[in-house]
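User: Show me a protein chain along with its predicted structure.
Assistant: Here is one chain, sequence first, then structure tokens.
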Amino acid sequence: MFQCQSKIIITAQDTNRKIEFNFVHSIEIESSYENLTDTCKIVIPKKLTFEGKDLFNGKNPIFQRGDSIEVQIGYVPNLTTVFTGYIKNVGSNTPTVLECEDEMYLLKQWTINYPSKVGLIERSKKGKLLKHPKVIPFNVKLDELLDYCLSDHDIEYDIIDNIDLGQFRMVNATPAAALDKLKSEYGLYSYFKNKTDASGKITRILHVGFANDASETFEAEFKMEQVVINSDTLEWQRAEDVRIQCVAISMFPDNTKSEPIVFGDPDGNQITIHKYNMTPDALKFAAQQWIKENKYTGYRGEVETFGEPIMRHGDRAKITSTKLPERDGTFLIKKVKRVYSVDAGNHQILTLGAKVG
């Protein structure tokens, strides 16, 4: 039987002091492109001290909010980094609970006003002088917006395409709020991911684009009778029983919206998707594709399995069965919940998305 192990590495932001420890009661990590921020909760069973000082509590703890943290989990002798980020909150009770966020934590620590300069419309389209001139932001592209938000900070990013966002405006908002607006109004998802250079060094960069970065997709097989813990309760659905309706809206460069295109079951659960600068025909096709991806015959819900192979959102899980091979299928993963504890061991819960094979 495999033996589980963990390692926590924390570095103080003020002193750069680093301490490692490997005894925790539990670790819970949630990661999804839908949530913007990955979270991690660590429960430490007792009060920890180092050289006579409290690690997290007391008047002058060694570590506190804003310190960086790395979490490694695995089976002896292997450890893999499954979370990097910052301490958001330190609980004052015993056991001590550390609430952490990934690098998105940094993008919530300052505010921006965009644009810093605006245009002024003094006349109507017909040339009539306006009594109350209109103040408007200039048009901006995605790369320009991210450069404005992040240029003063050591945060690398990549984008799916340099999309023209039209007239984009933010007042006293954090960069994280700007990314949230990109998701809600333009259908662009933002999340931090690993980037490996030629030497094998891994850095964390902000990715802004589609929900799944196909260039980074990893696929693994999970056999129902061997590694799927909840195989008896995993939900199976038939396409004809799924009642859903898609409302597709296109955002245009001048910040106007298209008329919504509705596709699917009239009595279905309604979901709205946003696209950018699409023609009516392209928008209709997008709505049809969304229905096709979500109205399928196959498994639905969550798959609970062991901690390895380590999966991340955007990866593909191939679910197979020797008893019911006709139900085999491959699914995109849209969320991963990782649970580690001294009692339950090392598990991961994969939330299945669209069926892709």
